[in-house]
């Protein structure tokens, strides 16, 4: 892969709106991606392997629990810093951002928000350092966009719960030490349970043959009469709203992350267009390539403003699920379109692993599907503005 010459576009001087802390956090993540991700990520994506050696670095830049209070090992940062970290990591690779999103928003957040003090103390510090890695089990073979129909269930056996069922498409599952699993009790009410690797009857087979997110490990969670200790139930929130609350936080991070992937594609295409000579002049001097590049920077700038304002609302505790859906949907769509256009700017070179664009494009095919598909987020906006949910 070519050396990482990335220069972040900031067309509307958004840096002026950031605090010194935001910039410090962002720049530390940016440097780490240049040093520890860019040189290795293509090789790991090609061989479809998660680079486990990056876990320590992710913890050091505050990517595990950026907004979790420091008393539990988190970085205690605000929501804009969290977004900026996700942006920088996804500039390197969406699969690496996935690992951080899952650990922070889908594992640490539910333990912090819905768990007991004992659970927080037991799990959060180890998850913050990456000593333990986590995964989040909501999706099932028969229930993806419609998780309320989940079939995974548990029974109260007096001194423990007995868990049965299966989850599919679970990021980090093949190596996770703990899984936050959503299952129904005997009354059909959804609860979160912390399942630990090594519990009898619990297995995590890996899903192979992915063309997307190849540097992220994806797998199943199988529960065959797993005895879960009663103290592993998350007691403080039940119902579908509990996992959906975690998704609000992860989707917010993706709205920022997608900007990173788009910035990388734009920056690569701009540099290439200035250097590539055809018909005796740089292709950047042709109107058609300028149209592509000008539209890319316009869309990136709009997405940055959307994410920044959403971050302010989130800091104030005012961001709604529907506002988050709009930003996730818009920014991922923006990024995938930019990846497709940027790939064309590079001509044949665009399909090779010498450049990051094709890997971003393939990754974004997962990002546009997970954490709620492009269609589902449109329906969330539709339901919000009309008052008529059209899912069913
Ligand atoms: P609905 O009737 O709308 O809601 C059920 C209950 O939940 C409440 N609620 C929320 N509570 C807190 N936060 C939110 N964001 C909430 N949204 C809804 C709601 O008030 C209600 O409460 P109650 O007390 O009345 O029961 O539910 P629905 O069944 O009609 O579904 C709505 C829909 C389709 C929007 C929802 O199911 C949905 O978002 N589906 C998409 C599923 C999804 O996003 N799955 C993601 C799986 S995890 C993943 O992909 C990780 S990838 C990680 C990575 O690698 O980065
Ligand atoms: P389906 O729900 O079957 O949807 C298929 C198509 O139908 C989509 O185009 C969808 O938009 C459309 N559709 C569905 N319902 C409607 C409707 N009402 N109206 C119109 N169109 C509709 N899940 C986890 O729980 N944890 C994870 O860590 C995780 N990681 C993932 C990692 C990867 C790489 C991938 C690909 C997925 C991951 N997921 C995870 C699962 C992801 O959240 C689901 O794939 C997603 O929610 C969609 O579910 P589905 O694939 O079953 O598609």
UniProtKB/TrEMBL annotation:
Keywords: FAD, Flavoprotein, Oxidoreductase, Transit peptide. Its cofactor is FAD. Residues 239-383 form the Acyl-CoA dehydrogenase/oxidase C-terminal domain. One of its GO terms (molecular function) is glutaryl-CoA dehydrogenase activity. Residues 19-131 form the Acyl-CoA dehydrogenase/oxidase N-terminal domain. Residues 135-226 form the Acyl-CoA oxidase/dehydrogenase middle domain. GO terms for biological process: fatty acid beta-oxidation using acyl-CoA dehydrogenase; fatty-acyl-CoA biosynthetic process. Pathway: Amino-acid metabolism; tryptophan metabolism; Amino-acid metabolism; lysine degradation. It catalyses: glutaryl-CoA + oxidized [electron-transfer flavoprotein] + 2 H(+) = (2E)-butenoyl-CoA + reduced [electron-transfer flavoprotein] + CO2. Its EC number is 1.3.8.6. InterPro entries: Acyl-CoA_DH_CS (IPR006089), Acyl-CoA_Oxase/DH_mid-dom (IPR006091), Acyl-CoA_Oxase/DH_mid-dom_sf (IPR046373), AcylCo_DH-like_C (IPR036250), AcylCo_DH/oxidase_C (IPR009075), AcylCoA_DH/ox_N (IPR013786), AcylCoA_DH/ox_N_sf (IPR037069), AcylCoA_DH/oxidase_NM_dom_sf (IPR009100). It is an enzyme of class 1 (oxidoreductase). It holds the Pfam family Acyl-CoA_dh_N. Belongs to the acyl-CoA dehydrogenase family. This is glutaryl-CoA dehydrogenase (ETF). It comes from Flagellimonas maritima. The lineage of its organism: Bacteria, Pseudomonadati, Bacteroidota, Flavobacteriia, Flavobacteriales.
